[in-house]
Amino acid sequence: MGALLRVIGQIAMLRQGPQVLPASTLLLWLALIAHWLTGVVLGSHALPLDGAFLSSLVGTLTMVAVVHGLLLLHRRHSRVLQTLTALAACETLLGLVAIPVSVWFNMGGGLQDVAVLLSLLLFGWNIAIASHILRHALGVSRGMGFLFAVGYTLVSITLGSFLVPVEG
Known about the structure:
The chain has helices at 2-12, 25-43, 49-73, 80-107, 112-138, 142-163. It is mostly helical and 168 residues long. The protein has one domain (2-13, 24-163). The chain is globular.
């Protein structure tokens, strides 16, 4: 387990690509469940619990659909297990870091601006990681990986906010 976490950390630090992960259906399911649960915890700070459940499900399913579609379009379907596992695991890792930042933000006070800055940095790092993973998985340039990552992020945010609007 420790070796797997180190590999995920290496991917999140942009030092390894998703191809270093085993192509395991079980590992993919575990990563997807962790991704969804982390999203529920993060979403519960801004949404009622049922909204957080739905929002996180939409986010996880959007990730699966977009990545699967991109891999099919680029004729790289054999990379789906490793790519989705890497992306779900790395987004979970960042989500776990974002939980205390979100709590800090919701506490208010004078340091709320710092929490906003940290959230923006995590958001940017998430795009960097997705770009890195997609570049390796699709066999494209860094620029194209970045464009795919931004597109995936925009689709996920737009679809999530359309299906589960934040009240208030």
